Every structure is written in C-alpha cells, then in structure tokens.
C-alpha cells in the first residue's frame, strides 16, 4: 500500500470514528470510544517447491463502546458505510440501556490522554508481488532441503506481509492513529535417521522488510535445528541448571506479565498477588518497558484507551515496581491505569553482559531447553510443569539431544534462580530477552 494511499485511508478512518462519536453523544451517551482499522496483506506457503496456499486479504472494521449512566454497550461492524455505522452506534446505545451498572466502567481519565505522537517508524510498505513471494518461499525451503540428506520432508516455507492503519478516538476529544506494517518469513522441515524423526523451524519477522533475515539463512537454520535433534535420548529425573534460549526466554517472562495484569490481580488468581515492592526476581534482573523504540513490534505512543505510554521499570533489580493495568481493573483495584490497555510495550529484560557461549560454559553441566510443550502453568500458585526437549551439556559442551522430559518447579523459584542473562537479545516480539541460565530446576524423566 503506497504511503499516499495509507494517509488517505487513515484520514477516512479518522472521519468515521469522529462521526460515530458524534452520533453516540446525540443518542444520549455520557461517554463513548471507537477504534477503526483497515489493512491488506499477502501470504504464500510453498511445500516441496509447490505453491500450497496463496492468499490475499483486505480487511476493515470499526468497534464502538458507549457508557450511559454507568452502563456499557459495545457493537462492531466490518461495513464502513454510513448507514451501517449509524446502525452500529444505535445498537451499542441500546445494549447499554439494558446492561448492569458498573461504577468502574468508563473511559480512562481525560488528563491521561496522549498529547505527543513521535514518529516511531512503524510503517514500511513492501512491494511484494505473488510471484516474488513464491520465489522467496521456494528459495527458503530449498535452502533447508539441500542442507542435509537427512532432511526428508517439509511442512513448508511461508512468506507473509501485512500493511494497514488504525485509529482510536473518544469523547474526551482524543483522536489519533498511525500506519503500521509487519512482514515475516518462516520454514519448518522434518529429518529422519533410522526410526528417529524430528521436526523444527526458524522464522524472521520485522516491520521493515529490509531487516528480515535472508531466505537462505532461515532455511538453513531450520534444517540445522532439525538435524541437531536426531538421536535424542531420555534422561532420568534430576535437579539441574537449565538454559532457556532467547526465543523461549520471552515466554518464561510472559508468565510474570500475565500474573501482573489487572484481571488476575482483581480476581486474586495471580502468583504475584500482594508482591509490589517485594523481590520477585534475582537481584540482577530488571524488566524495562520502552514504548518508543523505532521499528519495534511493541512500540506505541498511546495504548488501546488513548492513554499515553511511558518508559518505566516494571521490575528493578529484582524488585516488583508496578503492575500491567488498563483503566477498568485499575479502578477495581483502587489504582490508576499504567497505560497497558492492549498489553506491554517492548518489555526488555536486562542482561548480565555475557555471551551465549559464556552462558553454556558457566552452566558447565546441565540442560538447554529448545522446545516446550503443554500448558502446565498454574497462574494462581506459580507451579510450572511443561514437557520439553533440548540438549544435555557436560563440561560446557553439548553432549547429546534429549527428548521426553518435563521441566518442573515454581515460577517464583525459577525467577529468583536466574543466575545470568546473555546478550543475545531476541527482538521478535513484544518481550525482548536474551538467553537465561536458571539454577536448580527439576528435570523429570524416566
């Protein structure tokens, strides 16, 4: 989508949101908010060098929420015509009149609305045609299939590109929006040796297509990861140090973010309940939220309620300094929103200045987890139990691949047991972390 076209699209969305808010006020709404988005994208999957799927999609929609006497009503539509928008607002107002009164309902406070909108460089169009996308996916898969004769099958390589814009406005007079883009390339293959069969994958994602890893690199890395798992063994049960590589470390940190959300805290279903200003991580761990990183996937100058985002330390030297709140549950808890309606914005895990190789050497003997399976995390108690595969390390050197084990412990113990964090930052998500070395985790095996 050309830059001129995206500007026109954003202007249309702003007009639609403004009109909807005016109609809501005319229908008796005390407060109202609306969000609209429009986008287009291309997705191609090639398997065994044949085009398996080719999809072009274009989507748009608007959602409106109104508040009447402490009652809330919401409605949405994908039809941006004036008649449909009018009907959508009327439906939201009708629903609000039948809803239950809730004193915590309503817009975020007016004085918290964002007033500055720096250019965060979130929009990079990619003039990628279907033929080019197919060729790119084929090159990626071919690099994987040619890497090793033990690669005998493929789940395919996928190229995806999406560009669009979004707008949010409310009856405080806030109205703002921005264009954004996200592009990716991934590949997954299978390898066999005797009766042993393994699968793994690699991917790259960025807002700027020029920052994507090359197709050959992604394919070769997918193949390398897959072949390295052949010959996996089982282990007996033991207590051992464990390394979470950067691509898995962000998921481990993500459990803490879920426990710090307003809904979990209000329902008292969080293992981090009443932990504010207490040490919940090892003393060298800092979790910093930075919404203003150029080109980052989690960057935004305002959240889903128009509240200005801000840089802050969520965890500082192991001590919990704040929660992850939107306005509704913030009011329920007697607190203020932290500007996190929609989630965290680029949560960065501090490192301890060591490389990944240093981390493995420091561990000496232990387990590197490369895949986690199952959903065995108790958000109330923090009990953690997930199926895993990876590599057993002896004297700082990988000895052999491992499968069919379970990593078990409690998240609070795991977080406090982080002894080192590598500098190999993985930026492919809203949480950015290097590899983590955790001391003394139970590895349940045969």
Describe this structure as you would to a colleague.
It is a single chain. With 446 residues, the chain is of the alpha+beta class. The protein folds into 2 domains: 3-227, PmbA/TldD fold (2-Layer Sandwich), CATH 3.30.2290.10; 238-444, no CATH class. Helix content is 24%, strand content 36%. The protein contains 9 helices and 17 strands. The chain has helices at residues 3-26, 82-98, 130-145, 215-227, 246-259, 262-266, 327-332, 356-363, 411-416; strands at 31-47, 50-68, 71-77, 151-170, 175-193, 196-206, 238-244, 287-289, 312-316, 319-320, 347-349, 366-373, 383-394, 397-410, 418-421, 431-432, 436-444. The strands form 3 sheets. It has a 6-stranded antiparallel beta sheet. Strands 7-12-13-14-17 form a 5-stranded mixed β-barrel. Strand 1 and strand 2 form a beta hairpin. Helix 1 packs across helix 2 and helix 3 (130-145) packs parallel to helix 4 (215-227). The longest helix is centred in the N-terminal third of the chain and has 24 residues, at 3-26. It is globular. The model has no long low-confidence stretch (mean pLDDT 96).
